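4.2 Preliminary Data

To establish feasibility before requesting continued support, the project team ran the inverse folding procedure on a target of 387 residues. The structure was first converted into the token representation described in Section 3, and no sequence information of any kind was made available to the design step. The complete token record follows.
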């Protein structure tokens, strides 16, 4: 049987090692380090994500059981006190930088979104990660509650996060969005809920050549200046061109807007959508907003399948390091799925890799196996036999 390195080592080879080491050198993260380098720290944290380990003791025990694979990983030490110290002291920005470098590779293989138009499509939203206030006092949210908030710009081309900002949970979604220069191109469409409905900010997107689709608030003040005929559009009640008439809103957004009224027959609800895109059909505008649900599924997936709800350290740096490492692992899974055109779900791919993390096999061959067959994969080495 042909010799292969471990599945875990093949995962590590997909990371941008060169740019990682440049970032480590720029920050001096390996200064005074003898054994447990920044690269060792990253691979140990990725191992925790891939194997589903919940504590430092689990990580230490699991790695010690795989010492015969340390040579291929370049690992020489895996003591929990060393891991905890590195996570609390080495700047989390190293993992953040690695995430964005890996993101560029994923975009090259990500499939197109489900719509026929060619405009890049994004969803902007945020989710809250609850923390125990007594263990994480720096993350105070309410009087007796701690939390962090992950602000995400989700790219519908491949359902991958193209931009992430992690703040304390007291930061309002809109306030964070206003302070960001979103990395999107001209003609992009950004979908968002009513929390982002600030007309001054929406007008700034319009001036940048960016389209937006959002929900209209109930107290919206406007006058109709034009109307498009609705023919054969299921669920679309009206399609109007409007001008805002509120004292502040008309100053903040002096241009025309499009107001689409849509009735959801399945849930018996009527919605009103605001957009500055006048070229797409009204039914497409409604479908675009419905696609915003993909970001909720993304948040649900990472909370259920990545280790971002229980943490290995209590310092802010340790928590952020773990979150950014979790997102790196998500990109690795997406990269494998899209490059190999893996037909099954991301969850199934996660389970396959978890079962075979230290098996010596080609990762491409492994993807063609069912979960039950993957569990029976053995290393291509001689087995010990008792007589």
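Position-by-position output of the design step:
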């Amino acid at each position: 049987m042909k010799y292969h390195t471990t599945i875990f080592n093949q995962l590590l080879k997909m990371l941008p090692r060169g740019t990682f080491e440049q970032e480590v050198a720029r920050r001096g993260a390996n200064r005074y380090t003898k054994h447990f380098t920044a690269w060792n720290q990253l691979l140990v944290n990725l191992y925790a994500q891939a194997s589903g380990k919940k504590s430092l003791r689990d990580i230490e025990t699991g790695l010690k059981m795989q010492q015969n694979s340390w040579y291929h990983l370049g690992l020489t030490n895996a003591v929990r006190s060393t891991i905890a110290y590195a996570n609390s002291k080495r700047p989390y920005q190293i993992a953040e930088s690695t995430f964005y470098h890996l993101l560029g590779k994923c975009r090259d293989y990500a499939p197109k979104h489900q719509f026929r138009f060619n405009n890049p499509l994004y969803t902007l939203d945020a989710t809250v990660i609850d923390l125990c206030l007594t263990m994480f006092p720096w993350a105070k949210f309410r009087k007796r509650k701690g939390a962090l908030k992950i602000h995400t710009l989700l790219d519908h081309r491949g359902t991958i996060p193209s931009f992430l900002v992690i703040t304390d949970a007291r930061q309002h979604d809109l306030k964070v969005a206003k302070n960001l220069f979103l990395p999107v191109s001209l003609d992009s469409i950004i979908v968002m809920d009513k929390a982002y409905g600030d007309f001054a900010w929406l007008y700034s997107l319009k001036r940048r050549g960016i389209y937006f689709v959002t929900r209209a608030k109930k107290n919206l003040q406007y006058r109709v200046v034009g109307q498009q005929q609705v023919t054969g559009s299921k669920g679309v009640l009206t399609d109007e061109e409007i001008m805002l008439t509120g004292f502040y809103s008309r100053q903040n957004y002096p241009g025309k807007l499009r107001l689409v009224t849509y009735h959801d027959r399945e849930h018996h609800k009527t919605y009103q959508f605001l957009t500055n895109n006048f070229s797409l059909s009204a039914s497409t505008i409604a479908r675009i907003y419905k696609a915003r649900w993909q970001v909720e599924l993304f948040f649900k997936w990472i909370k259920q399948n990545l280790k971002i709800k229980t943490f290995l350290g209590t310092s802010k740096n340790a928590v952020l390091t773990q979150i950014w490492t979790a997102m790196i692992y998500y990109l690795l899974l997406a990269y494998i799925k899209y490059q190999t055109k893996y037909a099954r779900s991301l969850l199934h791919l996660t389970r396959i890799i978890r079962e075979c993390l230290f098996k010596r096999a080609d990762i491409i061959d492994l993807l063609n196996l069912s979960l039950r067959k993957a569990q029976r994969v053995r290393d291509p080495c001689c087995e010990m036999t008792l007589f």
